[in-house]
Every structure is written in C-alpha cells, then in structure tokens.
Specification:
Elements: H1 2-13, E1 40-45, E2 51-55, E3 60-63, E4 68-71, E5 82-87, E6 93-97, E7 102-105, E8 110-113, E9 124-129, E10 135-139, E11 144-147, E12 152-155, E13 166-171, E14 177-181, E15 186-189, E16 198-200, E17 221-225
Length: 226
C-alpha cells in the first residue's frame, strides 16, 4: 500500500516518473469515428489547430479534437473526391477536387472555380499560395493555373511546362515555382521571359515536392527531366 501511494505521488510531481517519450499509443479514426470515408487522400492542420481530411468520394472531414464534421457537395464543395488542401494567408481553405475544379471556403461560404472561370481541368492535384498571394493549381492534363484574385492564367507545354499533368508544386527560397509532372520531370518557373532548357536529373515522375534552397538565377521556364 505504501509503495502504491509513493508511486502516485511521484507521478503527480515528477515528470520523469511518467511513461517515457518512447511510449506510443496508436489510434485509428474511420467512418465509425466520424471520418467521412476510410480512403484519405490529403490532410491539413489549419492555424487554429483544426485538422482537415480530404477523402475519396466522401467529401472533406473537419476534426477539432472532439467533434467531426463533414462537408460535401451538398454544402458547396465542388466534388466529393478531394485531392489536396491549402490554407491561404487570409485563413481561407482551398480544396482541389477530382473532376469538380477547386473550391474556396472562408468559414462561412463556398466558392468554386471551374473551366468556366479559367481553371483548365477539373481534376486538381496540387495547390500552392506563392509569396505574392497568388494561388497556383496543378491539374491532370490541363497544365498549371495561377489565380491573382481576379483572373486565372494557365501555363502548358506550349509555355515551357514539361508536361500538362502536374501533380505537385512548391515555391523555393528564391521565389521560383516548381512543378512536378507525371512523366516529364520537374519544371522550374521564375516568372520571367519564357526561355526553356532541359537538364538530366532524377525521375521522370514527380508526385510530391518539398521546399529547399535551390540555386538562384535563370529565367523563364526550365524543365528538368531524364
């Protein structure tokens, strides 16, 4: 009895008496927990610490640590298959969907952009906000589009993009925007005059990308491929 009381006192006042950092607890969330579907394609933690999960054909689920809520086309989402999520500098959320274009949600209302607005292809695989506040979307077959808050402009292979199937985007330390393509490597864009060059590097297929300090310089579009 004395030993048990001593252990309880230690756990109350001595952090080292608690389970070590290596002690892990796994917990899985699925439809029975409140998640829309078991197939999750993307995730995001917003500035308030709320988690968002884009599912395959179930819409997007929001989890605040206690309660789940799912948004679908019935709420204003473009399509119930969500491929990518972005939170912009204003706190609005952008959802790239499979076949429905891209939806923006400001916490109150939804706005969807499709081909009629200038998004070239409804299947959106990546979203990026650059340092100037422009939104870039990478599409499956329609190239990459940039939205400046008023107008969408699309870039394709005709402009120097390595491939019109863009599955990942990032902006590097110098402000260059990189596009990972499905089948023709990675293309670098600095917003310049459009000179295109091709170098041998890495894989032909780029499904994801992470920012790092790339070398400065160059101009226009530069496609890197093998």
């Amino acid at each position: 009895m004395k030993a048990r009381l001593m252990w309880l006192l230690l756990t109350a006042v001595v952090p080292s008496a608690l389970p070590s950092p290596g002690y892990c607890v796994w917990q899985t969330f699925g439809p029975s927990s409140g998640l829309a579907r078991g197939a999750v394609e993307c995730m995001l933690e917003d500035r308030d610490g709320v988690l968002w999960f884009g599912t395959s054909w179930g819409g997007v689920s929001r989890y605040d640590g206690v309660t789940w809520r799912t948004y679908t086309t019935a709420d204003g989402l473009a399509n119930n298959s969500v491929r990518c999520i972005l939170e912009d500098r204003t706190g609005a959320l952008w959802f790239g969907t499979h076949g429905g274009g891209v939806s923006r949600y400001d916490g109150v209302s939804w706005r969807t952009y499709t081909a009629a607005d200038g998004v070239p292809n409804g299947s959106v695989h990546s979203i990026l906000e650059d340092r100037s506040g422009c939104i870039w979307v990478g599409t499956d077959g329609g190239g990459a589009s940039r939205y400046d808050g008023s107008v969408w402009r699309t870039f394709t292979t005709a402009d120097g993009l390595g491939e019109d199937r863009v599955f990942s985007t990032l902006q590097d330390h110098y402000g260059n925007v990189w596009f990972g393509t499905l089948g023709n490597g990675v293309t670098r864009y600095d917003g310049g005059g459009g000179r295109t060059s091709r170098l041998r590097t890495g894989s032909r297929t780029m499904m994801c990308a992470r920012s790092s300090k790339a070398a400065p310089g160059g101009c226009g579009l530069e496609a890197r491929m093998v």
